[in-house]
Amino acid sequence: MLFKQQVWLRQKLLVLGSLAVGSLLYLVARVGSLDRLQPICPVESRFGGAHSQAEFPLRALQFKRGLLHEFRKGNTSKEQVRLHDLVQQLPKAIIIGVRKGGTRALLEMLNLHPAVVKASQEIHFFDNDENYAKGIEWYRKKMPFSYPQQITIEKSPAYFITEEVPERIYKMNSSIKLLIIVREPTTRAISDYTQVLEGKERKNKTYYKFEKLAIDPNTCEVNTKYKAVRTSIYTKHLERWLKYFPIEQFHVVDGDRLITEPLPELQLVEKFLNLPPRISQYNLYFNATRGFYCLRFNIIFNKCLAGSKGRIHPEVDPSVITKLRKFFHPFNQKFYQITGRTLNWP
Ligand code: A3P
């Protein structure tokens, strides 16, 4: 009898213990996720907004975070959104490129900042004539819901190389902040090629080798008609943008460093966007299986980028690499000179 009572008592203690630990874990996770969405004063004073942090007690924020989520799923009425001051704001900063520079990683990592809300999809408003014809309200409606004191950021890498885009963005907002993430030009061109190659392979199509596309077989010179090469001549594209925006409105992100050491790069962006430093080493952890840094929002919610980011590149003839590097060198020098950021590419 005594033995039975002891067993019963032990079981009860075990259940109570698990409940206590579970609740504690839940609370810690909640606080972590709330911190992410907490509107912050310095941001508000810079970007304007109706509420101060004091007006957003944690409980209310918790509810509001849920509301944002529900609205994204289409479960909330417009009236509720209006009541809670949710808005769809035009972006205050745009990641304009460069394709394969690490644009997705940059957007996702900036989204760790509580004052930043990302547009998840590439909207292609300024580079696609059909979308552009739909007007600015169409564009705004594509933006995620946010609190007025947050800023929206979108990324569409084709913006950087598309002729009409600088003027169109200028017409929307001449003081917008523009982020360009670049990688060593030859590596970027190979990454670009790898993406196209994967698409062809998926459709069971054959494709040329990189060497054949990048080098003109008649002249044995770099083929400047090949898009992957042209895109990597960063200075040529930037010069078009500079007809509309002063260089102070651009910030160059080192995409190679974002891979190996993301935090200092993100801190430079926070500064450029006049955001208080909120992204910390806690938010970024190296995942050895992926071979990349992944994102940690709180103790429960982590994520790595999709498998399409970080592909294995095909081997390229070293003489072709040397030729390309030599070709890009003068353009790189000019790019460093214009932007004031030296990246020590070969
Ligand atoms: P590779 O696939 O060549 O490695 P974009 O998002 O502009 O298409 O850029 C894709 C590149 O982002 C990838 O190129 C990858 O190297 C880089 N990248 C940077 N940080 C990353 C991260 N944390 N996880 C995955 N890819 C990352």
TrEMBL record:
Disulphide-bridged cysteine pairs: 294-304
Gene Ontology biological process terms from the UniProt entry: heparan sulfate proteoglycan biosynthetic process; negative regulation of coagulation; regulation of viral entry into host cell
Transmembrane among keywords: yes
EC code: 2.8.2.-
Subcellular locations according to the entry: Golgi apparatus membrane
Gene Ontology CC terms, in alphabetical order: Golgi membrane
Enzyme class label: transferase
Catalytic reactions on record: alpha-D-glucosaminyl-[heparan sulfate](n) + 3'-phosphoadenylyl sulfate = 3-sulfo-alpha-D-glucosaminyl-[heparan sulfate](n) + adenosine 3',5'-bisphosphate + H(+)
Membrane topology: Single-pass type II membrane protein
Binding residues annotated for 3'-phosphoadenylyl sulfate, in chain numbering: 100-104, 183, 191, 293, 309-313
Broad class of where this protein is predominantly found: Golgi
Family of this protein: Belongs to the sulfotransferase 1 family.
Record protein name field: Sulfotransferase
Organism: Peromyscus maniculatus bairdii
